[in-house]
Design brief:
This protein is of the alpha/beta class and 336 residues long. It contains 14 helices and 13 strands. It has helices at 2-27, 47-62, 80-89, 99-102, 121-128, 131-138, 182-190, 203-208, 219-224, 250-255, 258-291, 301-311, 314-322, 324-334; strands at residues 34-39, 67-72, 94-95, 145-147, 151-155, 157-160, 175-178, 194-197, 214-217, 233-236, 241-244, 247-249, 295-298. A 5-stranded mixed β-sheet has the order 2-1-3-12-4, sandwiched between helices. Helix 2 packs antiparallel against helix 11 (258-291) and helix 13 crosses helix 14. It comes from Sedimentibacter hydroxybenzoicus DSM 7310. Belongs to the bacterial solute-binding protein 7 family. Residues 1-28 form the signal peptide.
Length: 336
């Protein structure tokens, strides 16, 4: 009888311990998941959005779900200017503006607005992925922003609803929408056009209603936003290469563990390769599609040089904005 009672007590004690341990485990605080909030200004069909989807996949995979990425495309959280400010303040974790609006916050980025600075994509990647490009990204830390790399926006081309432009002289008096960027406005003024700064989200309606006659963007954005439907003529000027710059709030990045920082950097690097590949493919594909619906004007070397000659005086203004050292670093690297 005593042995039986002892056995019952032992079983009860074990069960009590098991239940107690189970109860303790169930109530234990779960490991906190770190959320990264990303906002950008383009449609889900663009290479930019695909780049962010790849970044999300990599970060969540590499962190075993301890970091999650939420993406808000289509200017849901604002345009480039608003998103840069939001990242500075920490209200949004990451964004990826084009370089032209970023220059309003960090003047060093005006260096990338030098017309005809790059001759082709190979040169773009070689320079931007070098120490020269890294030194430009480093200037963002002063503004509480971490620059993470260079994604593809593309070479900008001129479209208009009036005539097939082949020379600077034909731009006289044409109202061309530009970004809110002093270098871009000066460059179009030198060509005789009437530059009109305007938010990207307002552009389609402005072109449709003839508030402005023209605009300039890479082929992917022209097609994705249907600008070609309200612009008959596309002149392949390729006058400026625009990059997207993935940004993160610098304080947020610095407060991450070294492990998480490495995950962010590795994921951006891998996403960059895929985003550029998609962007290059889209550029070719959308150009071909627009050739079937629009008049695309291919400039000869001499015709393109005429645009370059007219825009050349803008270099002095870039030097005053970006600094002579930064301009020298890029012009020497590109052989400008």
């Amino acid at each position: 009888m005593k042995k039986k009672l002892a056995l019952i007590l032992a079983v009860a004690l074990c069960l009590g311990l098991f239940v107690g341990c189970s109860s303790k485990d169930a109530n234990a605080p779960k490991e906190e998941v770190l959320e990264i909030k990303v906002g950008h200004g383009t449609a889900e069909t663009t290479a930019l959005h695909q780049g962010w989807l790849k970044f999300k996949e990599l970060v969540e995979q590499k962190s075993d779900g301890k970091m999650t990425v939420k993406i808000f495309p289509n200017q849901q959280l604002g345009g480039d200017r608003e998103l840069i400010e939001a990242v500075q303040l920490g209200n949004v974790t990451m964004t990826s503006p084009s370089t032209a609006p970023l220059a309003a916050f960090d003047p060093a980025f005006f260096v990338l607005d030098i017309p005809f600075l790059f001759s082709d994509r190979d040169m773009v990647y070689e320079v931007l992925d070098s120490q020269v490009g890294e030194s430009l990204l480093d200037t963002l830390k002063e503004y509480n922003i971490k620059g993470l790399g260079y994604w593809e926006n593309g070479f900008r081309n001129f479209t208009n609803s009036k005539l097939p432009v082949r020379s600077p002289q034909e731009l006289s008096g044409i109202k061309v929408r530009t970004m809110e960027n002093e270098i871009h406005m000066k460059a179009w003024s030198l060509l005789g056009a009437n530059p009109t700064p305007m938010a990207f989200g307002e552009l389609y309606t402005a072109l449709q209603q003839k508030t402005v006659d023209a605009q300039e963007n890479p082929f992917e954005l022209i097609y994705a936003t249907k600008f070609h439907e309200v612009q008959k003529y596309i002149t392949k000027t390729q006058h400026i290469y625009s990059a997207y710059i993935p940004l993160m709030n610098n304080e947020f990045f610095n407060n991450l563990s070294s492990e998480y920082q490495q995950i962010i950097m590795d994921s951006i690097k891998e996403a960059t390769a895929e985003q550029r590949q998609i962007a290059g493919k889209n550029d070719v594909e959308f150009e071909e599609k627009m050739r079937s619906t629009n008049e695309v004007i291919d400039l000869s070397g001499d015709e393109k040089q005429a645009f370059r000659n007219e825009m050349a005086p803008v270099l002095d203004l870039v030097k005053t904005k970006a600094g002579e050292d930064m301009v020298s670093a890029f012009t020497e690297a590109t052989g400008y």
